[in-house]
Structure formats: structure tokens, C-alpha cells
Amino acid sequence: MRTTGTFAAARRIDRTGENDASRARSLVRVAAVIPALNEAPSIAGVVGKLRDGRAVAFCRIVVVDNGSTDGTGERARRAGATVVREERRGYGYACRAGVLAAGDADVIVLLDGDAADETSDLPRLLEPLLGDRADLVVGSRVALPGLREPGSMTPQQVLGNRLATFLIRLLYGTEVTDLGPLRAIRREDLLALGMGEMTYGWSVEMMAKAIRAGYRYREVPVTYHRRVGVSKVGGTLSGSLRAGWCIISATLRYSRWLPRVPGERGEIR
To answer: What is the pTM of this model?
Structure first.
């Protein structure tokens, strides 16, 4: 996997001493991207926890208001986030807008705005990436028993997650346990994947293409809380069915995907 800029510097310095490596890694600019649709009750708290810097010092916190009608964007702005408005509804559209808005970041951390993700897990999520042992790190809500709060995932979400991860293991030959929303990836590596799924298929497309491109995939166990409010995906049967169809179809579609010629960079369309 290609390693450039500050990551290459961190890897070189890491051979000379742990303190120097820590200083090099502190130069890496990490941005949080939070796609949000009608998350007014929780978004300010999520942004506040990210801004306090106790977990990770973010260079930028980008909240993508995906057409909210409840003042989510304004609450996020007052809490100190950079707010981008994306009127085209879809998780992929919102993620795309946030990644593009984080233009000077080296690393992107994706998380939800519903307060279900535990921000204290972020250092553990980033550690394999900043230590140059992984290229895509996903927080697994099912890796360790007891970390997922009862009721935080609906039965249809649990079943859909099991089916999708089974297909990924079968078709891609990689041990995957969860399609969790909490994940970290270098921005240039994400851009190189040429992401095209603009709805619920975004997350599995990222994982599938990363594996097919030879990225080093890693999971870390994370805590998962009950979300604030009703889930747009798992909260209704129709939402679950739409999301499930997008995820399963994307899993199958990218099983034969091939990356571009080595060295040629792609872009999020």
C-alpha cells in the first residue's frame, strides 16, 4: 500500500524512537465527518465531545446537514462544527460532501450524529492507521460481547449485518464482522476508490473496494449505545428493506471490481 507525506515520515521516524514517532503522528491532520439528517437532539453533544480534544485533536469537524428540517445544521454550527448542506438525500451523498469539505485533512474519521458511537473509542480506532498497520479501520460493534448496548441495533439490523458480513467473508476472503459506521481511512486512499454509491451502499462499497484494492483491513472492538431518536434505517420496515437491498446488491456488485492502474488516483464523483 502506498504511504506518502506525513505517514511516510512517521514510519521512518518510528524506527528511531517512540517519542519521535509520537511527534510525527501529531502532525497528521485528522478530520471528523458526520452525516446528519434531523439529528437536532444529539448533534451538539456529539460535536462537543469531539471538540474537547480529550480523545483526538481534530483539525476539523464537518457536519453534513443532509436536508434536515429540525435545525440540525444550526445546532451543529453553534456547537463549533463546520456545516455543509447537502440537499440530495442519501448517506453516500452526505459522506461525499463531508470528505470533499475536509480538503486539507490527511485522515477521515466517519461517525454518526445520533450519539450511538462512543468517542472515547477514537484513539483505538486510529491507532492501527497512524501506526501504519492498516489502511481502513472499522469499529466492530459485535467483536466483543457486552460492548453493544441492548436495543442499540434492531433485530433486522442484526440479521442484515450478519448476512452482509457473511457474503463479504465468502466473496472477498476477508474476516469481517460488522458494517459499523465508525471508521477511519486516509483521505487520499478513500478518494482513490472512486466511490459511487450515494445511498445506503456507501459503507459496504468502501469496504469491498478497499479489500479488492489490497488495502490492509482492520477491525477494532467499539462500544455502541442506543441512538438518540428513531433510526432512519432500522426504525421502519421499509427503511430496513431499502437499506438491506442496497447493501447486499453492492456487496455482490463489487466482488469483481478492479482498481485503476497502480499509481493512478481516482476521485469521488
So the answer is: 0.87
